[in-house]
Amino acid sequence: MSERTGNDIGRPPRPGSTIGTIVYILLGPIVWAAHFTALYFGQSVICQITESGRLELMSPAIILGIWVATAIAASVLAMALHSPARFEVLLGTDVWQADQRGFHRQTMAVLAGLSLFAILAAASSTLLIDTCAVLR
């Protein structure tokens, strides 16, 4: 049995969520910004409060934290790219017409792909640069 929409029962369909649509389309940059902020804020705070004698013990923990945060952010974007319909329902954007929904999905996919690249590039810097060298 199919789901009933507003038109099936004599009522107009609910309007699409404007804020939800903006969040859906900008999901990639939002996740990237949160990842970027968490990484650099967390790393800066830990490097500033850690005494130089214990820095060797904290560097692996910082790197592990960076890669855990990267895995979480990449997982969110991978889920959004793999099943965008779930995010549409979650954010209330599933009521738009098919052509609008297609545009929203394509835009979200491009931005999420670019953001995924940026997230992985930022995390890969831990393999090349000393953890707290810039802050010393």
Short description:
The chain is mainly α and 136 residues long. It contains five helices and no strands. Helix 2 runs parallel beside helix 5 (98-124).
Name the features.
5 helices, mainly alpha
Write the layout of secondary structure elements.
Elements: H1 18-25, H2 27-49, H3 55-82, H4 84-91, H5 98-124
**What's the β-strand tally?**
0
Give the H and E element order.
Answer: HHHHH
- Computed over alpha carbons, the radius of gyration is 20 Å
Q: Percent of residues in helical segments?
A: 55-70%
- What structural class is derived from the secondary structure elements? mainly alpha
Percent strand: under 5%
End-to-end gap: 65 Å
Please state the oligomeric state of the protein chains shown: single chain
Count of helical regions: 5
Envelope shape: elongated
| Main sheet record | none
Low-confidence stretches: none
Return the average pLDDT rounded to an integer.
81
Describe it for me?
With 136 residues, the protein is an all-alpha fold. It has helices at 18-25, 27-49, 55-82, 84-91, 98-124. The longest helix has 28 residues, at 55-82.
